[in-house]
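We were asked to recover a plausible sequence for a given structure. The inputs and outputs are reproduced exactly as logged, with field labels preserved.

PROBLEM: sequence recovery
POSITIONS: 319
GIVEN STRUCTURE:
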């Protein structure tokens, strides 16, 4: 893989974005004609105005970033491993036809989806370089946990859970059993817990700070490994929490670091924008259109704009 410092010209004309696959005669300047007619000609400039600088900037930056990330981190990504993961997803969603339908709904082909997966891995490599998190920080901000949940009904029509009084009584009875014999936790979780984690004896795996509701998290991070909490009340109902021993910490460490990085990005999006800026400097990126350059700087390399876009995205997802 050639890793030399390259000078890359950001493809900022509409022809580069829209007509890159149309052959060697594709127009390369804004005043060149795409289509002619008796009623008038359509020039690259007209198409750019129609699409808008922000959209062209976004698409151009995406193409450029993928090129840079692939050049810089391509030999660090295991494509065969990604293919195996995608094969597992295909089986999970009911086979190739069903999966292709889901991709089509998102405007993607299988090859494009795999390329997206690779890009995600490239970005992880970038952020791992830019964000330094020690093993101690990971341990201080994560906890392996299991719990038993007795749900409280949201209202009278809620078919799941119990009344507050009944749920409290049941969790208190369970706590008495566990005080006498803590080794029964897994069995009781499997038989009595009203959470999907019951299928795994109540195990939640590793919990990262900021992931759970405050009363649950506060109680969990006070516990020593192997210790059980008192009864904890949350909006979901009543819990008994166990801090599990992190025997597989080294195996899970890289995944936990990724989650902590994501948490940091939510609080400090400048981590990502600064990482992008460093890449652009490293690869001597040369903008050929001042309007598009401004659009990229204002909307993509601006931490506040990035935070706003992320917030809007969460709102659209109902989060």
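RECOVERED SEQUENCE:
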């Amino acid at each position: 893989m050639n890793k030399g410092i390259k000078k890359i010209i950001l493809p900022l004309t509409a022809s580069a974005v829209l007509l890159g696959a149309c052959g060697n005669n594709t127009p390369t300047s804004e005043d060149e004609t795409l289509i002619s007619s008796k009623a008038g000609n359509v020039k690259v400039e007209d198409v750019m105005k129609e699409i808008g600088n922000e959209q062209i900037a976004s698409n151009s930056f995406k193409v450029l970033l993928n090129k840079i990330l692939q050049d810089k981190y391509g030999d660090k990504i295991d494509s065969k491993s990604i293919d195996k993961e995608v094969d597992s997803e295909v089986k999970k969603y009911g086979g190739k036809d069903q999966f292709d339908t889901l991709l089509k709904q998102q405007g993607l082909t299988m090859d494009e989806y795999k390329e997206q997966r690779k890009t995600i891995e490239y970005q992880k490599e970038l952020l791992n370089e830019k964000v330094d998190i020690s093993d101690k920080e990971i341990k201080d901000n994560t906890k392996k946990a299991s719990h038993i949940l007795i749900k409280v009904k949201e209202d009278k029509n809620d078919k799941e859970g119990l009344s507050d009084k009944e749920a409290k009584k049941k969790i208190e009875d369970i706590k008495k059993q566990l005080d006498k014999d803590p080794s029964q936790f897994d069995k009781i979780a499997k038989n009595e817990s009203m959470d999907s984690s019951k299928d795994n004896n109540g195990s939640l795996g590793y919990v990262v700070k900021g992931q759970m509701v405050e009363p649950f998290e506060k109680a969990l991070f006070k516990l020593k490994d192997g210790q059980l909490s008192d009864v904890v009340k949350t909006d979901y109902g009543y819990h008994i929490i166990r801090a599990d021993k992190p025997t597989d910490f080294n195996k899970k460490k890289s995944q936990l670091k990724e989650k902590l990085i994501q948490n940091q990005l939510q609080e400090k999006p400048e981590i990502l924008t600064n990482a992008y800026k460093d890449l652009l400097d490293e690869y001597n990126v040369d903008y050929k259109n001042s309007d598009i350059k401004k659009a990229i700087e204002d909307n993509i390399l601006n931490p506040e704009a990035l935070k706003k876009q992320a917030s809007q995205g969460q709102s659209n997802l109902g989060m």
